[in-house]
Design a protein that fits this description.
Number of helices: 16
Helix content: 40-55%
Radius of gyration: 22 Å
Number of strands: 12
Shape: globular
Largest sheet: 5 strands, mixed
Distance between the termini: 58 Å
Low-confidence stretches: 1-28
Structural class: alpha+beta
Strand content: 5-15%
Mean pLDDT: 90
Strand order of the largest sheet: 2-3-8-5-4
Order of helices and strands: EHHEEHEHHHHHHHHHHHEEEEHHEEEE
């Protein structure tokens, strides 16, 4: 095995093990090449990425990371600059894992193509429709699945016995998959998300993602003619009457199945997990439920459910003092940007009382998450108040540890709970 230091294939920069951290380069200082972070391993990112992000941010805002075959952008300023400049940072990445797993959705398109697809979602996801139509459905689903959790009794898993089926059933109805179950939604979402994050190129992961993609295509093909004759408030019903190409409908629905399930599921579980570990803040939200929206926002800042998304440079450029070549594949690491100490005081700590500052958990610019208001409604407005009212003395099970995991997508994978 070669002992030569890892080298960035674009810039030729080599790893410098043991180099002391240096301050961020500013736009006024000399331009530097991206350091090579060959010490970053995918398994370490999956287990706990935050110590890695701390070290990366302290060294430079951008690194070439061989393990993920892309530059990782970890400072708030650099991530924010990328989000606001689609002319230099394209969403239409070549050799995209997401395109392979889900097709060419609006998330991997630049304007004007992106805006055409995004506008087709407007009527279903706008705040007025959520208030008039979806909130009532969310309340019904929450009563059903919270009831099932109560029936199962103390020792149940908060994620798999409540948060996952609740958010999956909401998403099934939002999408208009009357020919599928919430269990189908969970399986489709997880397998296609695993494909999107398959940086290890595992063939078994690709096989499961491709099988789910084919099932979703078949379900869409069945529902579109039905909803054209029997319209409702769902995305598919809205799309059935629009001149949107079938391949775009399929790709956008698969993207929605991925992000639309994991994001509310994970922020719901993470918020409760964080509050249960902070008794003072837990008591505060119990006494004043109006604080729950703040808990939601702090939770997505602290652990962004979608921790990283890709971009590609359209030209040679300098980003926060680091030179990048044209065609460079970037990982915009929101999970790191949201804990940048240059923006957030004591950023590693969950604190619902921190000074209000804009986080990047829902992205920004033209690609700001279209499902943000849906997530806030079903989690902060409907689920969280009922969870703390219906589960007296809710607490984590001290006999079985909860587990949080992931970095491209991060959330609770195990969360046994007790209540009185």
């Amino acid at each position: 095995m070669s002992t030569a230091p890892a080298t960035c294939p674009f810039t030729g920069a080599q790893a410098t093990p043991g180099t002391a951290p240096v301050p961020h380069a500013s736009t006024e200082s000399a331009v530097r090449e991206a350091p090579v972070a060959d010490w970053v391993k995918i398994e370490d990112l999956y287990r706990d990425p935050f110590p890695i992000y701390q070290r990366l941010r302290a060294e430079a805002p951008v690194h070439w990371v061989p393990a993920v075959n892309r530059y990782m952008v970890t400072s708030y300023a650099a991530c924010h600059e990328i989000e606001q400049d689609e002319a230099r940072f394209s969403a239409n990445e070549r050799n995209s894992l997401m395109k392979r797993s889900m097709g060419h959705s609006m998330l991997r398109k630049d304007n004007p193509e992106h805006q055409v697809d995004r506008d087709s979602y407007g009527a279903t996801l706008r705040p007025g429709t959520i208030k008039k139509h979806w909130n009532g459905i969310f309340a019904q689903n929450n009563e059903k699945y919270l009831g099932q959790l109560l029936a199962k009794g103390p020792g149940a898993d908060f994620v798999w016995d409540y948060a996952a089926p609740y958010t999956a059933e909401n998403l099934r109805l939002i999408c208009g998959f009357h020919n599928a179950t919430q269990q189908d939604m969970q399986r489709w979402s997880q397998t296609m998300i695993d494909g999107t994050g398959n940086y290890a190129d595992d063939p078994e992961v690709w096989a499961k993602a491709e099988a789910s993609s084919a099932e979703v295509d078949a379900a869409i093909d069945q529902m579109l003619p039905y909803l054209a004759k029997n319209p409702d408030h769902s995305l598919l019903s809205n799309l059935a009457s629009m001149p949107i190409p079938l391949e775009a409908i399929r790709a956008n629905l698969k993207m929605t199945i991925g992000g639309g399930l994991n994001e509310p599921r994970d922020v719901l579980a993470t918020t409760v997990w964080a509050l249960l570990q902070n008794p003072g803040q837990l008591q505060a939200v119990r006494q004043d439920p109006a604080l729950l929206p703040k808990a939601f926002e702090e939770s997505v800042r602290w652990v962004a459910p979608i921790g990283m998304y890709p971009r590609e440079t359209t030209q040679e450029l300098v980003l926060e003092g680091v030179r990048l070549p044209a065609g460079a594949r970037l990982g915009v690491v929101l999970g790191a940007a949201n804990r940048d100490p240059l923006v957030f005081e004591d950023p590693e700590t969950f604190n619902i009382f921190r000074e209000k500052k804009p986080h990047l958990a829902f992205g920004g610019g033209v690609h700001f998450c279209a499902g943000t208001w849906i997530a806030r409604a079903q989690v902060a407005q409907v689920a969280l108040p009922e969870v703390f009212e219906k589960l007296p003395n809710l607490r984590l099970d001290p006999a079985t540890a909860s587990i949080d995991a992931g970095w491209v997508f991060r959330g609770m994978t195990k969360m046994p709970i007790l209540w009185d």
